[in-house]
Amino acid sequence: MERLTRAELQARNRARVLAAAREEFAERGFRDAKVDAIADRAGLTRGAVYSNFPGKRALYFSVLADLAEREAAVDGVDGVDGVDGAASGAGTAREALAAFARAWVSRLPLATEGPARLGMDLMPEVLADQRIRRPFAQLMKLNAIVLGLALEGLGVPGRRLVRVAETALTTLYGASQMADAAPGFSEPFDVVAACAALADLDLGDRWDAPHLPFVPRARPGDGPWSPPPAVDALGGGPAPLARDGVVAILGLHRLGAVEEAVRAAPPAGEVTVVLVTGDPGELGPLARLTLAELRFCLRRALPAPAWPCLRVVHDEEGAVAAAAGVTAVSDGTEAAVRVRSGRMVARADGYGACHAAASAEP
């Protein structure tokens, strides 16, 4: 028998722990699940579980993220920009919101027993810890920006739809909570109709350039840009980091700043947001989970031309950040570089960095 390398053995054990944890969480729920029972199911020691995951909550988030990413990948053909045949081909923002909501409610549990209960403890765990709530709020903000930008591609030119997207996501997350707490209470078709109607509401949503007490100026440069291979969490294929555009390195407390880069970038300019965190073991899988859920619904709702020129990369090891010159990352990190012809021609750090790099003279 061929001997496994250390990396191969670790990958195999991690997969065994994830499979065992999924069974334990599905049967007992997060609160009653035991790490010792997960270790027994996996045929490993308790220490082996903790060598792969820092705690039970991190393991729970990882199980949910793994399932969501598998579902999003199976639903479409990865590696192709835009969407596949599962998309509705919606031509208006109203049609796209309806299709997005239908995709969302199609995944709601109809009962509180069996596998559907697996994700029921997610929101209680988010609510239980301020350290989780703040990154989760910013992840929701990022999702709303992505969805809003996509809707803008179908709506009235010049109209910002991020607040409409925020309201739609609030409605859908509320529907998810009611499906868990009071199964059968809400009518899914009513939820879809309500989300579609949001497209016609004028919420007074306008975009103003950021008003910061100090906006850093982008520093000109001419350094080589050699990013490592990365995956686009929205498209599913390789992230085109070598293309001209803006690469924003953002911690999980600063994700809303990506809109500053998108709005300040030249027309059709590409923006890539690189997600970093000071807690990759627990917050990393939470980020993967929320983006995978968004990706599943976007694939079913929006035609390829409506997808924004925005990429999202999970950088839990900090490799892409290091290539951009950011050697130490935290959840408060904000840095951005402007890339042209394989060179970093401008960079900025700190609050306002996204706006500064995107608006720098080419």
Features:
single chain; 362 residues; alpha/beta; Glutaredoxin; six-stranded mixed sheet; 48% helix; globular
**How many strand elements?**
6
Averaged pLDDT: 88
CATH topology of the domain at 219-359: Glutaredoxin
Cα Rg: 21 Å
Tell me the major beta sheet.
Answer: 6 strands, mixed
Q: Based on CA inertia axes, which overall geometry fits?
A: globular
The CATH homologous superfamily of the domain at 219-359 corresponds to Glutaredoxin
Give the distance, in angstroms, between the N- and C-terminal Cα atoms: 57 Å
> Largest sheet, order of strands side by side?
1-6-5-2-3-4
What is the CATH-assigned architecture of the domain at 219-359? 3-Layer(aba) Sandwich
Ranges where pLDDT stays below 50 over 5 or more residues in a row are 77-85, 111-115
Describe this structure in words.
This protein is α/β, with parallel strands linked by helices and 362 residues long. It has 13 helices and 6 strands. Strands 1-6-5-2-3-4 form a 6-stranded mixed β-sheet, covered by helices on one side. About 4% of the residues have low confidence.
Would you spell out the secondary-structure blueprint of this structure?
Blueprint (H helix, E strand, L loop, with lengths): L5 H27 L2 H8 L3 H7 L3 H20 L17 H13 L16 H6 L2 H23 L9 H20 L6 H11 L20 E6 L20 E7 L6 H7 L6 E6 L6 H19 L8 E5 L4 H5 L10 E7 L2 E7 L3 H7 L3
Parallel strand pairs: 2-3, 3-4
Antiparallel strand pairs: 1-6, 2-5, 5-6
Helix pairs in contact: 1-2, 1-4, 4-11, 5-8, 5-9, 5-11, 7-8, 7-11, 8-9, 10-13
